[in-house]
């Protein structure tokens, strides 16, 4: 899986239940989600793949799947996400928050990268969460942020300071992303206030 001259290589086999076909794709982390892009009239399946292509570069691919009629949002985004200085680190798991429209890419050695689901734009790079290998990561549905389990059994719950996160997005001049996330957070605030 690793050599001194080449990056870590990964092959992932995906299987279509509907078509009863399987195919191998290059990448270290993959997930399928259901999402409705603003340019589509209906929700569709989306394939999200992270692939380490060199020592310090990983590419993110977001591909809408489905019938031709809904194929108005076809993207294969090549955003470079720079990881730790470890030659052995690689994208380990992809978690998507549909409500926030965010992709969380967790690396094996405890780094987090956050991208926008609609554009693939990198929002947070190389946030070092913990000095341990990651065993599993899932979405915490209450906070819409990652819940991480390490190989030593540590459970790590990430809590975003969303006001700082929104300020950071605004500083990146990503107005549409800022509006979408702040609109969602405002609606959640209103629901909590009603309770």
In one word, what is the shape? Answer: globular
* Biggest sheet, spatial arrangement of strands: 6-7-8-9
Give the number of DSSP strands. 12
The parts where pLDDT drops under 50 for at least 5 residues are 68-77
Could you tell me the strand content as a percent range? 35-45%
The overall average pLDDT, rounded, is 81
Query: Which class of secondary structure composition applies to the elements?
Result: alpha+beta
- Please give the oligomerization state of what you see: single chain
Radius of gyration (Å): 17 Å
What count of helical segments does DSSP give?
A: 2
- Give the ordered list of helices and strands: EEEEEEEEEEEEHH
* Helical fraction: 10-25%
Through-space gap between termini: 51 Å
Describe the SSE topology:
Elements: E1 11-16, E2 21-26, E3 29-35, E4 44-54, E5 57-65, E6 91-97, E7 102-107, E8 111-116, E9 122-128, E10 134-140, E11 145-150, E12 155-157, H1 162-171, H2 175-194
Antiparallel strand pairs: 1-2, 3-4, 4-5, 6-7, 7-8, 8-9, 10-11, 11-12
Helix pairs in contact: 1-2
Q: What's this model, at a glance?
A:
The protein has helices at residues 162-171, 175-194; strands spanning 11-16, 21-26, 29-35, 44-54, 57-65, 91-97, 102-107, 111-116, 122-128, 134-140, 145-150, 155-157. With 195 residues, the protein is α+β, with helices and mostly antiparallel strands.
């Amino acid at each position: 899986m690793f050599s001194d001259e080449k990056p870590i290589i990964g092959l992932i086999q995906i299987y279509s239940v509907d078509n009863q076909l399987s195919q191998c794709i290059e990448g270290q982390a993959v997930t399928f989600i259901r999402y409705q892009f603003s340019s589509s009239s209906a929700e569709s399946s989306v394939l999200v793949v992270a692939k380490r292509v060199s020592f310090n570069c990983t590419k993110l691919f977001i591909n809408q799947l489905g019938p031709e009629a809904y194929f108005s949002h076809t993207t294969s985004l090549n955003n470079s996400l720079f990881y730790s200085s470890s030659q052995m680190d690689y994208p380990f798991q992809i978690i998507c928050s549909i409500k926030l429209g965010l992709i969380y890419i967790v690396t094996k050695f405890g780094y987090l990268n956050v991208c926008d689901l609609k554009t693939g734009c990198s929002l947070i790079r190389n946030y070092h969460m913990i000095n341990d290998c990651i065993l599993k990561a899932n979405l915490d549905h209450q906070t819409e942020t990652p819940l991480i389990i390490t190989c030593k059994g540590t459970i790590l719950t990430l809590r975003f300071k969303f006001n700082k996160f929104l300020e950071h997005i605004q500083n990146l001049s990503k107005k549409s992303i800022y509006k979408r996330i702040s609109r969602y957070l405002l609606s959640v605030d209103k629901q909590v206030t009603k309770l």
